[in-house]
Specification:
single chain; about 475 residues; alpha/beta; 3 domains; 5 strands; elongated
Length: about 475
């Protein structure tokens, strides 16, 4: 065998710097170069044996330290991005090259094409680190199954995940079998990192993942380029979809919307993934809803209403659209009269949804229609509807914002106090808000009818708490 062919065969069979054999070969080549070239050159200037020996030790030590670092220390993941970790062991360096170039690069390409490379990055681990990570994942999983939530194995894995800044792990083995035509077999698992959640959400994530993930992949070596790329596309789709689901759990709705919009473009481009369209559209819709609520609680009502418009563009709903427009009129245009007209148009479309009552209650107080407002309040207190608690929390949040922006908006104290008292059954907290409204209304000679109602509630609370 010629020297050139020997080098090629050696490279394909197993040259990887994390291997012990590679360290031995590197040390031998380095020491050979030292003996044959470098030391004779230094002797022209110095015959000091200690200097020659120190050079030997220093170079060998540096190589060993670098080899150990490359073999045993996980790289630091980019902290401005969340990293997708590929920890697939291979039989030789050719396969590792395929994993790095054809497989990982195709995932990187899809991230870039779909505008997700600003959020996510791909890290490919060498064989030694892949084995090390796989072992830590296995021990972590065994500890989780055994309920050992404070074990060292769990801490060790979480420390590794933090160093890698990892969001999604793809791990397993790539092997080649020579039965007939040479065939690659890839047995892979995946793990997604997300915030702690309830059993229902956790089981949903597991089911979604199980429905999508292919654990055993095979393709002919002669078609390896297409094989690696097509399976990289599958992993891109699965990983991106699962990362999108995790944004709902982690409350990263803006990031989630970017993922769903990117997947819509990806599915449209591929053409053979139309079955995913309704599901992606629904998840984008949910992300718009959740982000709208988040903006609402943060007091950014312009962004909140914009998000509402986006989710209404996906699933048109005249009732919701009218409520949304009413919110815009009162928060942005400062036109409660027009907002009230929109609410009246929405009422016949409401069905069993009572959200409009809270809007109307607030608006009637705004235009000083106190008797009509209390009539709506009676309706609110005598009825219930699905997801009402969420609406109540939004109303309370909005009125707290009103007070923060304008301390003279004293009617918000009344609204908050009544809802906390009658709907949330927290008489102590309710008393403070209602009492504050009563005192401020008395001093300003405003809201006489609401003040009378407030004093009635204060007497009721006094009896409850035995004051």
């Amino acid at each position: 065998m010629s020297e050139q062919n020997w080098i090629k065969t050696f490279t394909e069979k197993g040259f990887a710097f994390d291997r012990v054999s590679t360290l031995v070969i590197t040390l031998c080549l380095t020491n050979g170069a030292l003996m044959a070239v470098i030391i004779p050159f230094i002797r022209n200037y110095s015959e000091n044996l200690y200097l020659h020996l120190s050079l030997f030790i220093a170079l060998n030590f540096c190589i060993i330290i670098y080899w150990y670092y490359f073999r045993a220390i996980f790289p630091k993941g980019k902290h401005k991005k969340e990293n997708l970790i590929i920890a697939i062991t291979t039989e030789d360096s050719k396969q590792k090259t395929r994993i790095t170039k054809d497989f990982a690069n195709e995932i990187k390409k899809q991230l870039k094409v779909n505008g997700l490379d600003t959020i996510y990055n791909v890290i490919v681990l060498n064989n030694s680190l892949s084995l090390k990570l796989q072992n830590r994942i296995q021990l972590w999983n065994e500890s989780i199954q055994a309920g050992l939530n404070l074990s060292g194995d769990i801490r060790s894995f979480l420390k590794t995940a933090t160093r890698l800044n990892a969001k999604f792990f793809v791990y397993g083995d790539l092997i080649k079998r020579n039965e007939g035509n040479s065939t690659y077999f890839m047995q892979i698992e995946a793990l997604i990192m997300h915030a702690k959640t309830n059993d229902i959400a956790s089981n949903t994530l597991k089911k979604e993942f199980a429905d999508l993930w292919k654990r055993e992949i095979s393709f002919l070596e002669k078609d390896e380029l297409n094989g690696f790329k097509s399976n990289a596309n599958h992993i891109f789709l699965t990983a991106t979809y699962m990362l999108g689901l995790a944004t709902l759990v982690n409350h990263k709705f803006e990031e989630g919307i970017k993922i769903w919009e990117s997947l819509e473009r990806y599915i449209k481009e591929k053409g053979d993934l139309d079955d995913f369209k309704p599901k992606i559209s629904q998840l984008k819709y949910q992300s718009y809803i959740m982000l709208s609520r988040l903006y609402h609680f943060q007091g950014d009502y312009v962004k909140s209403t914009n998000m509402r418009e986006k989710y209404l563009s996906i699933i048109p709903n005249e009732y919701s659209a009218l409520l949304n427009e009413a919110i815009k009129q009162v928060t942005i245009s400062k036109s409660p009269e027009l907002a009230l007209k929109l609410i009246d148009k929405a009422i016949p479309l409401a069905g069993k949804d009572g959200t409009w009552k809270y809007n109307k209650f607030y608006l009637l107080i705004e235009i000083n229609e106190e008797i009509a407002a209390l009539s709506v309040l009676d309706d609110i207190l005598s009825s219930q509807f699905k997801d009402e608690i969420d609406i109540i929390n939004q109303v309370i949040s909005f009125n707290k914002f009103c007070l923060k922006e304008n301390p003279n908006h004293i009617q918000s104290n009344f609204i908050i106090g009544v809802l906390i008292y009658k709907k949330l059954d927290n008489v102590t907290l309710a008393y403070d808000y209602i009492k504050s409204f009563s005192d401020l209304a008395g001093a300003s000679n405003r809201f006489s009818i609401l003040k009378e109602k407030a004093n009635k509630y204060l007497k009721e609370i006094d009896k409850i708490i035995g004051a």
